[in-house]
Amino acid sequence: MPDEASDVEKGERLKVLRAVEALLRMQRLVLDHFPDGDMEGVTVLLTVAAGSLSVVHRDGAAHDQMMQGPLPREWFRPISGRAVAASCGLPRETVRRRLEALEKAGEIERVEGGYQLCYNVLSRRQNLDFARGLVREFEFVHRMIERCDLP
Predict the structure, then answer these.
(1) Residue 13 to residues 3, 5, 9, 23: CA-CA distances in angstroms?
(2) How far apart are alpha carbons 26 and 104 in whole angstroms?
(3) What is the C-alpha to C-alpha distance for residues 39 and 54, in angstroms, rounded to an integer?
(4) What does the alpha-carbon distance between residue 7 and residue 140 come to, in Å, rounded to a whole number?
């Protein structure tokens, strides 16, 4: 049967299916580990985490340090509420409310220039189990998508 959409590459449909399944498993992972939270709150938390630790992508010493243990607090970078909203695509008022709730919960802290992840937050509550599950899922989906290229 000829493919009606000639711009779809061989195996691409299967790769998309694998990616969608992985995204749904990740969503379930979020809901399982943050039952009182919501997807927007977790999105804001992860956005602040990525912004706070972004120095790792530009600084070899920060990268090496993070491979060994937590970054020193002074290496964290603040991210403004406006930047969080722009990054994750949520309305600023929604982000503001989620930032306040995350600060109250002790996940993030308000500092000069915005918000940053609290120090060593990975070892708190369910965060480490969630992070490990997230990494396992990415490793799994990578293998599944690679299999789509096998003859």
Answers:
(1) 11, 11, 8, 15
(2) 25
(3) 22
(4) 27
Q: Which residues of 50-73 are buried (b: 16+ CB within 10 A; e: fewer)?
A: bbbbebbeeeeebeebeeeeebee
- Give CATH for domain 38-125: 1.10.10.10
The structure's pTM equals: 0.82
Q: Which residues pair with 110 in a beta bridge?
A: 115
Question: 119 CB contacts (<8 Å, ≥6 apart)?
Answer: 70, 73, 76
Half-sphere exposure of residue 74, counting CA atoms within 13 Å on the CB side? Answer: 0
Judge whether residue 150 has pLDDT over 70: no
Is residue 141 within 8 A of residue 23, CB to CB? The reply is no
| Sign, CA torsion 76/25/68/119 | positive
In the chain, where are the structural domains located? 9-34+131-151, 38-125
Distance CA 40, CA 27 (A): 11
Q: What is the pLDDT of residue 149?
A: 78
